[in-house]
TrEMBL record:
Belongs to the amidase family. This is Putative amidase. PROSITE patterns: AMIDASES. It comes from uncultured Thermomicrobiales bacterium. Residues 28-452 form the Amidase domain. Gene3D superfamilies: Amidase signature (AS) domain.
Amino acid sequence: MPADLDLCYLPATEALAKFRRRELSPVELMEATLARAEEVEPVVNAFTWQFAEEAMAEAREAEGRYLGRGPAPGPLAGLPVAIKEEMAVEGQPWTSASLILADKVATHTAPLAQRAIDAGGIVHARTTQPEFACAGFTHSRLFGVTRNPWNPAFDVGGSSGGSAASLAAGTAALAGGSDIGGSIRIPASCCGVVGFKPPYGRVPEEPPYNLDHYCHEGPLARTVADCALFENVVAGPHPNDVASLRDEVYIPPDLGDVRGWKIALSVDLDGWTVDPAVEANTRAVAAVLRDAEATVEEVAIGWDRAAISEAVSIHYAAIFGSSVAALLPEHRERMTPYAVRFGEQFGELPPGSVLRGLELEGEIYGRLGALLAEYRLLLCPTTAIPALPAGHQEADLRPDAWGMAAYPTWDHLMTVPFNVCSRCPVLSVPSGFSPDGVPTGVQLVGRTYTDADPFHAAAAIEARLPWLDAAERRPRIEGAGVAA
């Protein structure tokens, strides 16, 4: 039988409330989720691995807890939670989407995944990513091409592409991702869901990337409230992460009041060439916030885009790029062309450049910090274009595609400056669609460590510009065997 789409798209917060009232069983939700995955995965390909039997057993256990058998249910008990493949889950494959690691199995569990499991979340599937999570799109030699549920001709963004695609396709209630250059926010934008880059140190990570201030792990969800729910579960100090923040911040359930707020608007971040649909949808969101009685003013930040590119190149060369470059001498032939290019481009750190990079980062944040001293949030597009073609090769993209410059697969990412400004919380929410039917998104950038502020503005947007809440606002996945 076709999956029950009302269950598959039921917000996590509503599912939990129904579990508590005994109006819905975790078993029913998991059955619907697994049935939906069976229908759409041949088209979307958001999952690397699925654990249906184990998930059903855990759903039955969660059902018992809601019926009063055993310990009280945790805050995510009974929800299907998809976890990005690069995060370790003990006993499950841990390949980073690379042929080099195709046989690797994790012997431990990463903090975000462990907190989801401890809260009762059921890891029913692992999600696709590009090799070593080093691209803003999602295809690999190991797992193939992940396609956009809204239009399979297009990509899902990356690197947490499978996580966002699973949410849009109705095959997970919540999903975990990571973000070192926009890898939560890019796919959230491309797939029409919500993705949060927490401030650096808010969500614990594993060494050594817990010490990389560009690197963040965080939640993706279909609704703002669901994203807040997941963030509250995974955030907080951890004994194995020296960078994790000791203070704990709780995002309240009562969100959406932005009356009297001053919000800055930048459509191009002082230098990006933005697709007309992206610009129009961003301005439409600004109008929605004005309807919510916020003051929205268009501003110039004062950024030098070349300085941002230089700072990012130095930083990647210092840590991320060098780790990929180290594999090239032995494994080049087994690696994807984009991973090879990443290692070559960011594999060498010139002497003295670390100091130069830190100076640039200080200047970049200084401009943003001055702006946010006057405005409570910055509103801007998440990406300059809606999405890239699915499974594209870099050589297939014209250098002038979408008016971009020499490196089109990176050039459209308006997320990267906020990895430089890593202590700012950033939430990406849907803003509309392109003429091709692919979603677009906007970023809500808060002052440092003001985690709840972007959620307040996002809830105000969602209340007036809803997404995925009704059948007519969900993707119709052609070729999946059902009228989705």
